[in-house]
Amino acid sequence: MNTTEQERILIVDPNPLFLEKLAQGLRARNFDVVTTVSSMQAFHILRDWSRPVDWLFSRATLPGLIDGWILADEYHDSHPNRAAVIAASQAKVCAQGHVVLKDPSPAAVLDTMQCIMAQNQAPEIASHTKGSEERLAA
């Protein structure tokens, strides 16, 4: 987890009401939230190495040539050990380990994102603690 800056979350959803409700919930939890209804803009945000995205939520179906699955693949290239959260018409298993939710509410997405962030943070804390213990033992 980045301790010097807020973690950055990209939300991609063509429904502006859902998008804003989810963004408000994440901002209230002290995250840097970037929102867009455009899949092309989301793709460019994911490719902007000067401001990396730490977490991704996207609808599977988006207007345009780029869908949520392509965005999740792009995200996975930078974060192979982190799951994106994808909203789809049907829940399914994803080979890259992304979490696919069936037509979730903003609250369900918030809960899911907090769970995957906590799961990701636990191995980092354990790794950091183990490294500290090894240095002390030496």
From TrEMBL:
InterPro entries: CheY-like_superfamily (IPR011006), Sig_transdc_resp-reg_receiver (IPR001789). Residues 8-117 form the Response regulatory domain. Signal peptide: none annotated. Keywords: Plasmid. It comes from the Bacteria. SUPFAM superfamilies: CheY-like. This is Response regulatory domain-containing protein. It comes from Microvirga terrae.
